[in-house]
Amino acid sequence: xxxxxGREEDRLEAALSRAAQGxxxxxxxLVREHQGMVFSIAYHYMQDRSLAEDLAQEVFxxxxxxxxxxxxxxxxxxxxRRVTANRCIDQGRKKLRxxxxxxxxxxEPVASHAPADPLLLERLQQSVAGLxxxxxxxxxxxxxxxxxxxxxxxxxDMPVNTVKSTLHRSLEELRKGLTRKLREVRYAFF
Amino acid sequence: xxxxxxxxxxxxxxxxxxxxFTQRVIARVEQAKAEGKTKPANGNGNRxxxxxxxxxxxxxxxxxxxxxxxxxxxxYQYSEYRHAEEMRIAAEKQRQMEEKQKELQAEAEKAKxxxxxxxxxxxxxxNHVLQQAQVPVGIEKIRRQRL
Amino acid sequence: xxxxxxxxxGLALCCAAxxxxxxxxxxxxxxxxxxxDKAARVTDVTLDGSLLQFAVNMIEKADDGDExxxxxxxxxxxLKGIYVKSFEFDEASxxxxxxxxxxxxxxxxxxxxxxxxxxxxxxxxxxxYLLKSGSGExxxxxxxxxxxxxxxxVVNIVGDVPVEKISSLEHHFVINDRDxxxxxxxxxSHDEE
Lengths: 190, 147, 193
Known about the structure:
heterotrimer; A: mainly alpha; B: 5 helices
């Protein structure tokens, strides 16, 4: 396992090095490696596929322009998360809207496997999209990317304690929001 | 409504953007290159430079510690140098003053010797002339010469 | 107004006269410097201004216990200048009458020749002149001129000169310096001529 991770890192380091020298095949490899992460952060934040793809493309375009400054594969991952998060928040401030979609209208991106409770999961996604900007991104980075509070704090330029309190508050709001939504569509889970 | 963190993780699981995303990105990059928009944004350099250091706290700490040590050592060395320099200047001034004193002393000694010599010669010649003129050496005779 | 102007002019003339006395007292001896080349032994002393003051200060510091030192102090304290040109030659006639005249020609009417000695056999001509002060109460200058076949000596002392004290300085001496604590040699003098 460790050997395959090591080999994987070497492959990405090599691709990064070649891409920095202008190798577009190597750059495409980097895009393929990270497109899920970038697109997912944008999609979960904005709950809009086309907006998410646009944003993801801009992130990778920015990456192409600044490849020479990326130090390592790990740095690349950090950089992509940070830039995507910041762009999402900026985009959200410009648009100032929270989309609440009816269950039947919500687009269904390709999932790797079937969720346990699709209704709950969709409501959760929508509830997350309804959180204030910073809270939303904290939740996404925590539960989509599995980042710890320190990593989230670094990515979003926030104090660690603020991240922790934001996370706690966000989960509370999600619970309240979910209950409201379920009442609105007359679904009872308890 | 209760949901678990696993539910949240499942809800926020990564999703693939779909077929052709990579090609669309490459196409956009090529379009940007053609339009001459491939220069890196100004903020990126600073962001990646700072990020490099943020990713390596041990390095950052070591460099900062070394810099601080260097400053402290440099400050100490400078204050030692200043002190030594002040001592040297004070000693130099003292030495110059002493030399000046010695010079003045020597000059005064020389002047004294010359004065004594001159008065010696004056005495000798005065008495010689008085003797030649057979004038007695003494106060009364000098006074009688219409002083 | 005329009276005031007259007083101012009178005062100016007095000052000029006083200054004139001072200037008369100093005889210019530089014309004799050319004799140095021919002389076997030269004594050249020029002591005035700050140098004379140095000498006076040094002598002032010396021990008053010695009678000669005390006498020297009393001689020096009112002097303004001491000038000596003394040339000793191996052969006669190394200087001319014109050299001696260059000194004598500066002796103004204010000077008084108090002693003159002429020895034709030895071809020696010695003179002593005194310059009285303006008030006439003390000496403002002394000139001693000794012209011998193999020696020419001119001594010019400016200031309130106690001639009798100079004459009665009987010893060769060097000061017993109180500050340095050194006692230097003291011996009786013999007449030099």
